[in-house]
Predict the 3D structure of the following.
Amino acid sequence: MTPISYLALGDSYTIGEQVADKERFPVQVANILRSKGYSVEDPLIIATTGWTTDELEQGIAAAHITKIYDIVTLLIGVNNQYRGRSVKEYEGEFTALLKKAIVFAGNKSSHVVVLSIPDWGVTLFAADRNRAQIAAEIDAYNAANKAIADSMQVPYLDITPFTREAAQDNSLLATDGLHPSGKDYGRWAKALASVLQQALH
């Protein structure tokens, strides 16, 4: 059986800022799929902490991707929101990124998954911020990326409710009090593996 190839596109949440490599959600997903009998290559992760949509675009260009991947995930936008950029600008750049992701998946939109943007407003890091405003802005960004994913028939995984539970449970946060812990990434990975299994059948 040819091993399944996996391309993960994103920012700090995809590269797993503050967690061990094995706790990154793409790595946990690959391990879950392996435990279910799939042969899976180690994921190729194109992601850097702090990246916005346009910076991910540049990162993809610099990576010179030439092969087709069996599965592709895209999670991007928190830094657009953090820097106060408009949802309208995000929509255009996210649309271009998702079109690229579909091409990387051999034009199989069902083999791409968009993940929603986490709500960092509930974290310890954001204690002195306007948490209601952050939540509202994240919701607006997620409404946009979900509508775009739906329009291209791309599966969508809403992990934002998981991240909001960090308001009551600090074990879902990494040591920086901002990024998710390996424990929270494990919950994303379990949900994502279920979505990917449907695509791989």
In short: The first strand starts at residue 6 and ends at 10.
